[in-house]
Design goal:
Elements: E1 5-14, E2 24-28, E3 32-39, H1 45-56, H2 70-94, E4 102-103, E5 105-110, E6 114-120, E7 124-129, E8 132-135, H3 142-148, H4 154-157, E9 179-184, E10 190-194, H5 196-199, H6 204-211, H7 216-229, E11 236-245, H8 246-251, H9 253-256, E12 261-264, H10 328-354, E13 358-363, E14 366-377, E15 380-392, H11 398-406, E16 408-409, H12 413-422
Antiparallel strand pairs: 1-11, 2-3, 2-12, 3-4, 3-5, 5-6, 6-9, 7-8, 7-10, 10-11, 13-14, 13-16, 14-15
Helix pairs in contact: 1-2
Length: about 425
């Protein structure tokens, strides 16, 4: 029987060189690895990501049943993502200023031999095994749909103007069906989860080179450093975890005593150096700033439980467009009402014009004047009887009778009256006799 497996992990989140606030949140623990990247700009994507992580971290418990099926593992992931979605929705309902906020979510739940993956958005999970890097998740983005259709390449996607357009996220308004699957792990595997601040600028070759180096701490630091040096303009969050046997973990106090790590917008615990030194592991950029700040209490509307670690400074701009408005249905109804109103105005104007037109015709053997136009639409009459004259059709020549039957167009009502008066005095044209 194979030995149980353990996770040796490290997590780092950095605000980056451009962004004012960190919209990313990350969590690494003995049973759970997760990255969330907030979307929303002024609508506070940091709140969405930290809310999701605070909910998802409840998964970080040893499995009750070691023989739990893969479907049971995914049920736990699905339920946690649903609860995160509900919690974001409650925050938005309580504070309309948060309308439009959402977050990506990539979750890896460990059970001692496998991980259950749940994924929404464009954060990513990778597996590095035997020197080969495999991307486990698939981006829910506009450019990924173009790649799938063969319209652009991976390289072109990195510089596409709409590369950050997310098609699926935890938005709190409607359920986003996550991608769900189970991966069997083996001793020596290395897992890597990140926000698009890293994978958006580093290709697979560069990621593999870094993941092939050193400890999880070292690899996580180098991945953040390389992302920033490659020009990433976004927040960068990286989680690296080695899969080791229980014997190896028990023999190494650094692994056996490793505490959970909460980083980025949701940070509650400061990352500790394995040597016990205080401060950040990441040195050489922004004085070692990794975005791992002391918890700040956010102002949450009455009736909603406050989330420790929520930053309170709003970000004025965000890289990705906001998700659909929670009241988009109302906008659609208003647009439809406007369109219907314009059509109604057009129809009314056309009907008004027809009622200023006249023609001479026949009804029940008498010459009459009709108001409207001498045309009918299916099921709709565009004329009505206006005046019945005392001129009988029998008194007209065959020529005039035929003209009246077909309808004689006139310029106005006065012309219609004159035409009726002149009909009995007219004679039909005759052929010249040779």
């Amino acid at each position: 029987m194979s030995s149980p497996l353990r996770l040796h992990y490290s997590a780092i989140s950095d605000v980056g060189r451009v962004r004012k606030d960190n919209q990313d949140s990350g969590y690494a623990g003995p049973w759970l690895l997760s990255v969330c990247d907030g979307v929303g700009g002024a609508a506070r994507g940091d709140i969405a990501s930290s809310t999701a992580i605070q909910q998802l971290r409840e998964l970080d418990d040893a499995p009750v049943d070691a023989a739990e099926s893969g479907s049971g593992l995914l049920e736990r992931v699905t339920d946690a993502l649903h609860q995160a979605h509900v919690r974001i929705g409650r925050l938005v309902d309580a504070d309309p200023a948060l309308n439009g906020t959402s977050t990506t979510a990539t979750v890896a739940l460990f059970d001692g031999s496998r991980i259950g993956i749940g994924h929404v958005g464009d954060s990513r999970a990778y597996l590095f095994r035997d020197g080969e890097l495999s991307q486990l998740t698939k981006d829910h983005t506009f450019v990924q749909s173009l790649i799938d259709e063969g319209r652009i390449t991976e390289e072109e996607a990195r510089v596409h103007p709409h590369r950050n357009l997310i098609l699926k996220a935890l938005v709190g308004m409607h359920e986003a069906e996550p991608d769900l699957f189970v991966i069997e792990l083996v001793d020596g595997d290395r897992l890597f989860l990140c926000s698009d601040g890293a994978c958006g600028v580093l290709d697979d070759g560069r990621l593999a080179d870094i993941l092939n180096m050193g400890s999880p701490d070292f690899a996580a630091v180098e991945l953040v450093r390389a992302s920033l040096e490659a020009g990433s303009s976004d927040n960068v969050t990286c989680i690296v975890s080695d899969v080791v046997t229980d014997e190896v973990a028990l023999a190494d106090p650094e692994i056996d005593g490793l505490e959970p790590m909460l980083v980025g917008a949701a940070a509650e615990l400061r990352r500790r150096s394995p040597r016990g030194a205080k401060g950040s592991l990441f040195r050489g950029h922004r004085s070692g700033d990794t975005g791992e700040l002391d918890p700040i209490e956010a102002e949450i509307p009455a009736g909603v439980r406050a989330i420790p670690g929520d930053p309170i400074d709003p970000e004025t701009a965000r890289y990705a467009p906001r998700p659909p408005d929670r009241f988009q249905w109302l906008k659609r109804v208003l647009v439809l009402a406007i369109v219907v109103g314009l059509v109604w105005v057009g129809v009314a104007a056309a009907w008004s014009w027809t009622q200023g037109q006249y023609f001479v015709g026949e009804q029940d053997g008498s010459v009459v004047i009709y108001r409207g136009i001498n045309t009918d639409l299916p099921g709709v009459s565009l004329s009505s009887l206006y005046l019945t004259s005392d001129v009988e059709m029998d008194s007209l020549s065959d020529y005039d009778a035929e003209r009246v039957s077909e309808g004689i167009e006139v310029s106005d009502l006065e012309a219609a009256r004159e035409t009726v008066q002149n009909l009995p005095t007219q004679t039909a044209p005759t052929d010249a006799v040779g």
